[in-house]
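Retry 2 of 3 after timeout on previous attempt. Resubmitting structure tokens to design endpoint.
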């Protein structure tokens, strides 16, 4: 990669020190300088362009700090040591000056950095000037995950999977009976949203009779359950189709949630959460029983805008 990018960075270095450019308004020449500061991209692109170790690395998975991969799921870990631009630049120079492949491997294993053409731009900080783009991180990451996985729009339901249930599987789904007449509460609130009794609730409560007392178990309906009824989803699609918008705003597909419209672009995700959903979600989730979902949606929209 460096062999391809080096000629480009030759020009970047020359332009940073400045050149005189003749223009129509300045025939005698005008002195200009060009600098490249932020490196913005998704995680694979950042690692390849800046020479960082991949996100699968145990010790050097992050380009900003030195957190170990084993601590990634700890919600309140001790603050990890932050990387500094000077340390990263020094490690990259050590990697370039190493005389053997083994030395380069040892340096990369210890510091998680190798030399790339970007390190030739000594005026930029390889840590502070390297960032995950909002398009990849928030729009195509957080918003899409919230829409598909948290709300379950576009998930593959039992009907769409078309997997037959054998008599044995059907028998295993029968509610468990205790010695008394009490049974495990198995109403339809935990089924897919277009069931007759679906109401869009975020969780269902199940009570189990024990020897000591009754234990209430809350079962979140995230991950594989749709949060909208078919009527509610149709209302969202109607809003998308009928809303009058400027020509430069990307309109989401009118059959939102169906596989036939294909993968949505970042502009579509952004307009969906900043224009269309704020118009209709407060009406769909206006009742008190949707208060938690509604406030969660408010927070998502506030962060997006």
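Retry 2 succeeded. Sequence:
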């Amino acid at each position: 990669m460096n062999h391809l990018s080096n000629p480009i960075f030759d020009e970047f270095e020359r332009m940073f020190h400045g050149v005189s450019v003749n223009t129509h308004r300045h025939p005698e020449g005008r002195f200009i300088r060009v600098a490249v500061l932020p490196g913005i991209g998704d995680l694979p692109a950042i690692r390849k362009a800046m020479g960082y170790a991949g996100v699968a690395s145990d010790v050097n998975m992050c380009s900003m700090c030195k957190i170990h991969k084993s601590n990634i799921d700890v919600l309140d870990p001790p603050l990890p040591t932050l990387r500094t631009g000077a340390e990263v630049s020094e490690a990259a120079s050590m990697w370039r000056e190493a005389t053997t492949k083994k030395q380069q491997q040892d340096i990369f294993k210890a510091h998680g950095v190798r030399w790339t053409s970007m390190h030739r731009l000594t005026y930029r900080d390889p840590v502070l000037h390297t960032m995950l783009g909002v398009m990849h991180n928030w729009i195509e990451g957080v918003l899409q995950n919230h829409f598909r996985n948290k709300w379950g729009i576009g998930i593959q339901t039992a009907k769409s999977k078309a997997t037959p249930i054998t008599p044995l599987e059907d028998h295993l789904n029968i509610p468990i009976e205790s010695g008394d007449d009490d049974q495990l509460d198995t109403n339809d609130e935990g089924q897919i949203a277009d069931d007759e009794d679906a109401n869009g609730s975020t969780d269902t409560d199940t009570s189990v009779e024990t020897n000591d007392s009754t234990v209430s178990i809350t079962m979140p309906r995230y991950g594989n359950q749709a949060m909208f009824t078919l009527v509610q989803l149709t209302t969202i699609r109607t809003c998308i189709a009928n809303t009058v918008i400027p020509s430069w705003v990307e309109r989401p597909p009118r059959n939102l949630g169906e596989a036939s419209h294909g993968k949505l672009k970042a502009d579509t995700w952004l307009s969906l959460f900043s224009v269309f959903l704020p118009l209709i979600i407060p009406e769909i989730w206006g009742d008190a029983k949707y208060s938690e979902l509604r406030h969660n949606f408010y927070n998502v929209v506030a962060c997006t805008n």
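Attempt log closed. Strands lie at 19-21, 30-32, 39-41, 130-132, 203-209, 214-220.
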